[in-house]
Design a protein that fits this description.
about 425 residues; 3-stranded antiparallel sheet; globular; single chain
């Protein structure tokens, strides 16, 4: 994300600006990319020296430019370690395929933490709530041991929640006490509100002709991205606020795309006469605006999960802005593919209901004013300074970008701030 996303409310008046700028978070984005080994997708080479991905990149970049769109190579987290090359893909389970195997926490941050000798890793232990002392200060994390069904407590001077957007908020709402009657950190009353997910579920698939040299080369997927071009600078149109971008994949038509960006050969009945062609799949992701009445709360009927922990009731709907945007996502994708001479074979017109993009954000937002936010600019709880929340729940707005890199960057920044303040005796 950039200041275009962080400061968007200053331009269109919807929601609140982030309490940070791009300049402040940029060094932590750099560190996050180092940890995750983020890099441009390497375009492969076929067995005869032909490179279909490079052909696809050139073809679609030129075609999309005719309708005012920009095509760039995707950037992914990729593990290049010799051991990782032989490990099964996290997403499809294949070994030795062309999937992009991302760097995972057991091989990076958790591995480094374990080396210190100071980490106790407790699995199968869902957290129920955070307990406080008589002064309302959080002192203990309370959970359930799934193996025994027994409750347990862990004491600590600092508490970091990074349990995913809705789970971190559920923990805070379940942490009500005499000093925090509406949930820990909820003196503002906004905890649980402003739930967002990306506008998704819109995808088009079609066939196109590659040049003869590229037709039978390399079966891996070309991975690209079309950045948001809408409502930028002085250009305000389209009948909706904010914007959207696209993920783009190309491959041989006799292959199908795996969830991880790799491909596998289609079954004979799927292949048909298309094996001499190539396939493109374009998937849209748009920004959902933050609204107070898209929210979660502890279920008022007292329902609980299998471990006896009160569950959330979710009330979240797409508004008119998202519905109008979804129509534009579809129409724009059709225009782009037409400009590239693609024969569209499948259309998912969407949009999906919130939650299906799996990019949940909001409900525990950052802000400068404790009266309208839960966390400060360092992800630190206004009402409980020794509690930090660093997952997507802290987002005041969601942008169009995949949220993971921002979550990691914010977590690094919050950890360094917490350690510094702890050393100074300020927490």
């Amino acid at each position: 994300m950039t200041d275009q996303e962080f400061m968007a409310p200053e331009e269109d008046g919807v929601g609140e600006s982030w309490p940070i700028t791009y300049e402040e978070i940029a060094p932590y984005y750099d560190k996050a990319e180092q940890i995750l080994r983020v890099k441009d997708v390497a375009l492969g080479g076929g067995p005869h020296g032909a490179d279909p991905s490079i052909y696809d990149e050139r073809h679609f970049r030129e075609a999309f430019a005719k309708v005012g769109r920009k095509l760039i190579r995707a950037r992914v987290s990729r593990s290049d370690s010799p051991g990782g090359a032989q490990a099964p893909c996290l997403h499809c389970g294949q070994v030795g395929s062309s999937c992009s195997r991302p760097v995972a926490s057991p091989d990076s941050t958790l591995a480094e933490a374990l080396k210190t000798g100071h980490l106790t890793l407790r699995t199968q232990s869902p957290v129920r709530h955070i307990a406080t002392d008589e002064h309302g200060r959080p002192t203990r994390v309370c959970g359930i041991d799934q193996k025994t069904g027994q409750e347990f407590e862990v004491k600590g001077r600092l508490v970091f929640l990074c349990a995913s957007a809705l789970e971190s908020t559920r923990i805070l709402l379940n942490s009500a006490s005499q000093r925090h009657p509406d949930g820990l950190g909820n003196s503002s009353g906004v905890l649980g509100h402003y739930l967002m997910d990306h506008v998704s579920g819109i995808a088009l698939t079609g066939h196109f002709e590659r040049d003869r040299a590229s037709r039978n080369a390399d079966s891996s997927a070309g991975m690209f991205y079309v950045p948001r071009p809408q409502n930028l600078g002085n250009h305000r149109s389209n009948g909706f606020l904010r914007g959207y971008g696209y993920q783009v994949f190309t491959m041989r038509a006799d292959h199908e795309l795996l969830p991880c960006g790799g491909t596998k050969l289609k079954s004979p009945e799927q292949t048909g006469a298309d094996s001499g062609n190539a396939t493109i799949r374009i998937v849209g992701f748009g920004e959902m605006l933050p609204h107070y009445d898209n929210y979660v709360e502890i279920d008022k009927e007292g329902r609980k999960d299998a471990f006896g922990i009160p569950i959330l009731r979710i009330d979240c709907r797409l508004k008119d802005n998202e519905k109008i945007m979804a129509k534009h996502i579809l129409a724009s994708a059709q225009e782009m593919l037409e400009s590239a001479g693609v024969r569209v074979t499948d259309v998912q017109s969407g949009p999906s209901e919130p939650g299906l993009a799996i990019h949940e954000a909001g409900t525990c937002k950052m802000g400068l004013d404790p009266k309208t936010s839960v966390l400060n600019s360092y992800n630190q709880c206004h009402d409980a300074p020794n509690v930090f929340v660093t997952d997507g729940s802290c987002f005041p707005s969601i942008g169009v970008q995949n949220p993971v890199l921002t979550m990691v960057a914010l977590t690094i920044r919050a950890c360094r701030h917490a350690v510094e303040r702890l050393r100074k005796g300020e927490i």
